[in-house]
Design a protein that fits this description.
TIM Barrel; eight-stranded parallel beta sheet; three-stranded antiparallel beta sheet
Length: about 350
């Protein structure tokens, strides 16, 4: 069974051979540990796949360089404070509703460009993306199309500013629905283009939660955002394509709404949502792509704490039928021995390549 078939079997709850997993080492850790990180990657090919020593530029932070400012295709200005880590929008083109009258949203299909998943969103060439999808299919790999991170809810506050958007959800100005429709239309153009390619999976991310609650009421989500997700995801499911949605934060109050909207693979965080609650509410209803703790146990725990936690989540949430995956993002100040413990524990529990 190749990685593509195994992934789809896990998503379909159709008895995969292994638990698909992905360990993503953040660029600041590559820069810190350098050749020592390469040693770990090379010693765990089941987790990381093929890797050639020396192929990584340890100090390439791309646009995520401290002090850098960029403007994305929507006119949102991003600022970066720490090398290699996520920036934030500091200038919002629709901070004043009056600007909406003359605002022209970008066209993802103009000039053959295609927004790619990333933070902040970057722009790529669609022909290049098409060739990659076709190459992956021939090599038994998953054909994945992506929407940029923060493609719906977050894009609204990138455009409006977070405080403004929170007031909008309370005051309900008519421009709010206009703005939501604008973002949905953009995403639908992109989604339909991906469907023309013949993808297996649409992957998108939208951080909907805070540490212990949502920033808006679940009823507000159902009034304004649920219809938007359903409109975007319906054509995807009609084509039989899986939808993987990533969301940081506490989202348990709306997790089942996301499933109803069309999500088939839900990537959510373990500790902020509670492993016990995830099991009770979601196991068997959706493929759980568990985002293993990146705030406490992985960066600050001891190796044995990490091993114990991996065993716990696998025992609670996995099933021979499938419906379970693991994603781990590893960030500073995680000690290198914790990364080794993480990879060893994943392999011990029967995890293997995701894509």
């Amino acid at each position: 069974m190749d990685a593509r078939e195994n992934f789809l079997r896990a998503a379909d709850m159709d008895e995969p051979e292994w638990i698909p997993c992905s360990v993503v080492i953040s660029q600041p850790l590559w820069s810190k540990y350098r050749e020592r990180m390469e040693d770990i990657v090379l010693s765990h090919p089941r987790i990381f796949g093929d890797y050639e020593r020396g192929s990584r530029d340890f100090d390439d932070f791309g646009v995520r360089r401290a002090g850098n400012r960029i403007t994305d295709e929507w006119g949102c200005v991003w600022a970066f404070l720490v090398d290699g880590l996520q920036g934030q929008v500091v200038e919002h083109p629709l901070e004043d509703w009056e600007a909406l009258e003359s605002y022209e949203p970008p066209d993802p299909l103009s000039l053959g460009i295609l927004p790619r998943e990333g933070f902040p969103p970057s722009v790529g060439d669609f022909k290049e993306a098409l060739m990659k999808v076709e190459k992956n299919k021939k090599e038994g790999k998953l054909a994945v199309g992506s929407c940029p991170h923060g493609f719906m809810f977050q894009r609204l506050y990138y455009l409006r500013g977070f405080s403004n958007l929170m007031r909008d959800f309370i005051e309900e100005p008519p421009q709010l629905r206009t703005l939501i429709s604008m973002v949905v239309d953009y995403n639908l153009k992109l989604i339909r283009r991906w469907l023309e390619v013949g993808i297996d999976l649409l992957s998108c991310g939208d951080d909907l939660g805070m540490q212990d609650r949502m920033p808006i009421r679940p009823s507000t989500f159902r009034k304004y955002l649920f219809p938007a997700y359903r409109e975007m995801f319906t054509p995807v499911r009609e084509e039989g394509v899986h939808i993987r949605l990533h969301s940081d934060g506490h989202i348990m109050e709306i997790a089942e709404d996301l499933i109803e909207a069309g999500v088939t693979i839900l990537n959510l965080q373990d500790l902020v949502n509670g492993v016990k609650m995830i099991k009770k509410r979601l196991k068997g209803k959706v493929c759980i792509d568990l985002d293993i703790d990146r705030q406490r146990i992985i960066p600050f725990g001891r190796p044995r704490d990490i091993e114990r936690h991996v065993r716990h989540v696998v025992s609670e949430l996995s099933s021979p039928d499938g419906g379970f995956m693991i994603t781990v993002g590893v960030y500073p100040p995680t000690p290198i021995e914790n990364i080794e413990a993480l990879c060893g524990a994943l392999e011990e529990m029967g995890c293997g390549p995701k894509f």
